[in-house]
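Appendix B. One record, verbatim.
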Amino acid sequence: MKQGKFIISTDPFDPAEDKPPAADTQPLDDEVLDSAETGVEIDLRPFVIDAAHHGERLDRALAVLAPEFSRSYLQQLIESGAVSLKGAPATRSSQKVKAGDEGVIELRPTPQSQSFRPEPMALDVVYEDEHLLVVNKPAGLVVHPAPGNWSGTLLNGLLARDPKAMLLPRAGIVHRLDKDTSGLMVVARTRATMDALVQLIAAREVSRQYVALAHRDWGGTAVRHVDAPIGRDPRNRLRMAVVESGKAATTTFELLQAAAAGCWVRATLGTGRTHQIRVHMAHIGHPLVADVLYGGAPAAGLARQALHAFRLAFAHPVTGKAVEFHAPLPADLREALGLWGLRYNDLEWLTSHAP
């Protein structure tokens, strides 16, 4: 059995970014079996609740201690008696914890936990210092392990690139891009930087801009500001949608070029909801090319959603210096523009009207 001492502290994930509900691929009774029967090594993790988590639910506190496990799986561990608190089994996920409480959690491997493994891969690092790095993610690369993609993710590559990333929740990832969206992401290399980046994103002090190729001629004013709340689509839980009960979401769209078949636009995020640009573009009648989930269709040679995060700007969380990064347009989007007779000019969409 492996043992280690952990202090629970605040989980620094982008609060402006909706997270899809976590799910385990197997029920607990398939995952948590007696180690003597299965030969599976149990990971015993003693823990101490710190002041930041005083009064929280036990399952929420444990989700910070073991971020490689979903909260639902941890709840099952609690209910099965695999978690002890103050020397006695904890049987209720809703039990409130106090600062100084000590306990032990027995963790058995799941596909989700085993996915947190280093996997060497070529990463396009645009910038790097001792505090953070900026990565240009290619289309097709999943950011974080999830059902159906337990390996080969950006997180796995970050763990292989820097062993210290294992000490950070989600290897320092503070925001996400969809699998088929290309472009820039900032990743923390220290806990202090991670906390600071999360605060910057929550305060909307990180500027994120995208370019997108969408269906149908633009029409109307060149600049459109969309303020429409986003939440789970009640008719399809795999999608997001504009719904009254959703979270506030704002996006500014600017027409760069128009074609008979569609439009080339720049999008500036005001908030960071799941699938925000894709949902808002579909909402105003311009689904992204090849974004089948939201009404788009393959066109102009593209089989992936035509969305690229080209600009990222913020105040460096340690030095305070204003930094700005750009990612050139991927080849597939350049070719798509050509097929639709649209001009490709970096300066036109890269620098004009950048906030």
